[in-house]
Amino acid sequence: MTATVFIDGEAGTTGLEIKSRLEGRPDVRLVHLTDEKRKDARARKDAIASADVAILCLPDDAAREAAKMLKDTNTRVIDASTAHRIDPDWAYGFPEMVPGQREKIAVAPRVSNPGCYACSAVALLRPLTAAGLLPADFAVTINAISGYSGGGRKMIASYEDPNAHDYTESSFRVYALGLEHKHTVEIERHSGLTTRPLFVPSVGNFRQGMIVQVPLHLRALPGAPKPVDLHALLADHYRDAAFVGVAPLSDPPPAHIEPEALNGTNALKLYVCGNAARGHAVLMAVSDNLGKGASGQAVQNLNLMLGFPEATGLRP
């Protein structure tokens, strides 16, 4: 079986990454538009209608408009934008999130691809809220750092192009200080929280890679769990996952954790680092922000939707 796939927005950062993972696969035929046709609504509508699956790599408003083009077609869709991530009519594209999610994605006509920060945060939090170890109304704080590729073309240019207006060699920048980052509502919804988390993202002077951290005062949680309890719960939840793994609990904890450790893969690795005597723990998730939280995840969802082996074209 050869499936026809159209990437609407294939010239952007996410689109190019998806294209690179699909090119050369004998089970996929990509539909392309010429440069002059990419902004032609009629040409895009025809391309969407001709595909088995359309992957939207567009700004939110454009993704909503593209989704409307699916009316009266048999085309299924994966939306990599933020536009539909909390829409109940769209399957959330994180197969490992809860039992049955993989099967839901496989048959869904519309799938929303998770945000990079959100995928990691949800991976850490959802098993804890589901088990009651973390109350849904708990005041969660999330700190994160991502490579600059997560900011798209403009941010990439600001770090890499000496001719760019805001070219910078800054090693570290905290941003979204109005505390309204667009992934926050997605994290709240899919983590099973009822209290909006406090999310503080940052960007480092490296192209790709990501660490998301959730610090916890364990004595503030029901039953005052130990780090070993959190680790056991996460390890059990992801024991059969192809792309999500939990690092062994170590004492002492690792000397350091690198955000670029999983670049080029579709892997998401979770860590529990704790100090049982102090009642402290920090949960961490490491991934390639262009992989499991973006293009790699889109390909994983595509494989499920088309009935292909889930890991096809992906590095674990």
Fold and architecture overview:
The protein has 316 residues and is α/β, with parallel strands linked by helices. The protein folds into two domains: 3-114 and 293-306, Rossmann fold; 116-289, Dihydrodipicolinate Reductase, domain 2. It is built from nine helices and 13 strands. The protein has helices spanning 13-22, 41-50, 60-68, 101-107, 116-131, 152-160, 184-191, 227-237, 291-306; strands spanning 3-8, 28-31, 53-56, 76-79, 91-92, 110-112, 141-147, 172-174, 198-204, 210-217, 244-246, 268-275, 280-287. The protein has a seven-stranded mixed sheet. β5 (91-92), α4 and β6 (110-112) form a beta-alpha-beta unit. It is globular and about 65 Å long. The model has no long low-confidence stretch (mean pLDDT 94).
Helices and strands in order:
Elements: E1 3-8, H1 13-22, E2 28-31, H2 41-50, E3 53-56, H3 60-68, E4 76-79, E5 91-92, H4 101-107, E6 110-112, H5 116-131, E7 141-147, H6 152-160, E8 172-174, H7 184-191, E9 198-204, E10 210-217, H8 227-237, E11 244-246, E12 268-275, E13 280-287, H9 291-306
Parallel strand pairs: 1-2, 1-3, 3-4, 4-6, 5-6, 7-9, 11-12
Antiparallel strand pairs: 7-10, 8-9, 10-13, 12-13
Helix pairs in contact: 1-9, 4-9, 5-7, 5-8, 5-9
Return the CATH architecture of the largest domain. 2-Layer Sandwich
Structural class: alpha/beta
Mean pLDDT: 94
Cα end-to-end separation: 24 Å
Shape: globular
Report the helical percentage: 25-40%
Strand and helix order:
EHEHEHEEHEHEHEHEEHEEEH
Uncertain regions spanning at least 5 consecutive residues: none
Question: Might you state the CATH topology name of the largest domain?
Answer: Dihydrodipicolinate Reductase, domain 2
Number of strands: 13
Q: Count of DSSP helices?
A: 9
